[in-house]
Amino acid sequence: MIDSDNRPWGRWEEYLNEPGYRVKRIIVNPGKRLSLQLHHLRAEHWAVVQGSGLVTVGDEVRAVRRGDAIYIDKGQVHRIENNGEDFLVFIETQYGICVEDDIVRLEDDWGRTSPGA
């Protein structure tokens, strides 16, 4: 593991950071969700490896579970929510310019607005 960080919704762990792509394992606690957000510099691919939840991409909201994959293009509004009783774990692969402050929060359960917060 290269880096990790605890967040109010759970935790992320970074395993690979190369020019043009980055790989993280993201753990979402039961009943929590990430910010409704978008990125200008990167696209993301999420592969759910444990648990289940709801994913928002643009105007579409759908249920996801282990084995499901989601692609989020640059500029697309997105969020993942753990509406279950177990941890929701997914592998996030970022493509493009992969910097932590490339985040625009549109809604946040904890009032965060600063990049990378």
Automatic annotation (TrEMBL):
Gene3D superfamilies membership: Jelly Rolls (2.60.120.10)
GO biological process: GDP-mannose biosynthetic process; polysaccharide metabolic process
Domain of life, per lineage: Bacteria
CDD domains, per the entry: cupin_PMI_typeII_C (cd02213)
SUPFAM superfamilies, alphabetized: RmlC-like cupins
One term of GO molecular function: mannose-1-phosphate guanylyltransferase (GTP) activity
Domain annotation Mannose-6-phosphate isomerase type II C-terminal: ranges: 6-108
Protein name: Mannose-6-phosphate isomerase type II C-terminal domain-containing protein
